[in-house]
Amino acid sequence: MKLGVLAHTFGKQKTADLARRIAGSGFTSVQLALSKALSDIDSSNGKLSPGLAHWVGEQFDNEGIRIAVLGCYIDPVHPDPEARKLELTRFKEHLRYARDFGCSIVATETGSLTTYQGSHPESYEEQGYLVLRDSVMELAEEADRWGVNIAIEPVSVHTMHTTEHMQRLFEEIPNSSVGLLFDPCNLMKLEHVVNQADFLKDVFDKLFDRMIAIHAKDVAFDVNGKKYNPLPGEGILDYPLFFQLLKTYKPHIDISLEGVTAEQADDAAAYLRRLWHAGQ
Question: What is the pTM of this model?
Answer without folding.
Answer: 0.96
